[in-house]
Amino acid sequence: MGVEFSRRRFRNGPPDHKSDAKSSPIPPSAKIARDAASAAPVADVHANTANAEDALEELRELTRSAGATVAGEMLQRRDKPDAATLIGSGKLEELQGAVASTEADIVIFDHDLSPSQQRNIERELHARVIDRTQLILDIFARHARTSEGQLQVELAQLQYLLPRLGGRGVEMSQLGGGIGTRGPGETQLETDRRKINRRIRHVQKQLEDVRRIRRQQRARRENVPVAVVALVGYTNAGKSTLFNALTKAGVYASAQMFATLDPTLRGVTLPSKRQVLLSDTVGFIRNLPTTLVSAFRATLEEVQRAALLLHVADATSPVALEQQRQVEEVLGELEVQDKPQIHVMNKIDLLPESKRHALLNTAKVVHVSAAKGIGMDALLSAIDEAITEDAVQTVKLRIPQSDGKALALLESKARIVKRQYRGDNVHLEVAAPESLVRRLGKYLVRPS
Fold first, then answer.
1. Domain locations in the chain?
2. pTM of the prediction?
């Protein structure tokens, strides 16, 4: 069930306020404000329709990812939400008939429902009703594989459930025992709230332990000058497929939304022979629930610590720009929107050949097909250019031929520009990371 709220539109232009002035005079400042509001431009109806259809298509994909079969769809446009049922009594009656005719056992709203709205709708439809946040939480629960991912999903579910407890009341009260404890006692609702709050504190403590371990691991990594490059992007943009193409890691990749929840780190060798760590993270989505952003803070810390973000987008999507804007909003919530970024336009193999040949790579935008392995060299070169950690230096070295270990290290970790054998020494000009130059400092040839 898709619901779109729009501003009021006037079919025959803005209303005429001249007649109002005679019957009920208003202050000049109020009249100016009213006229300005009437003359304000309104979004194009066709554009709003397209946005609503795109949102409904996304809800359809989320529903399939949750393992459900779509029996029917309904889209409503209204000026403001109904306080009791969100969609109003008339639309609710229409929805009731649709649910009965299709024998649907669950109704999914592409909008957050308040606890009272959810109960009122369920009472009328005689079917289970969930909203967008609950649907996404269910998908997350299905795809969480590690204990860390399961803890984060459980925390988000508990935080979502807590304000939605209700409907039990005094009839579920528990009588106290002993002198001075007679009375209605504690309601079952209060007991449940206390249990959930206790469980939330327990899960938060476990997640804090996870963060502590991650901080220790990160501190050990930071002792070695290896930059972290984080993959971010809209869900189903192909981040995990790109991760596999660059690292040969073989992590789970699927066309389903939110197939990847748990962060994965793998090493990647750049053209300069520098090493970086590539991090695959959870995908973002339009109106990502705030409970999920806070619950997955431990996972998203990898994004916050990254030296470079690879913003992956689906080049074939008609709403690619809107999806990128949604990702930028989440990055803003994480306070990482100012980090260096490379936009990676994925799935170009699905574009028509004429469009594919017209694509141009820049330092900030690279076009690839992760599934076909197209553009991987260009992407690695762009990453190499963008990474400033452990900068590459061109230096001259004089190494004894007997020091095979130093020569082998150069072969594996540096790019040999020039090599000459003179007597017992090898004279080399190399482009090497700063850390490697420091290790071989005793062999440096100082300019005279």
1. 2-14+26-130, 225-386, 392-443
2. 0.71
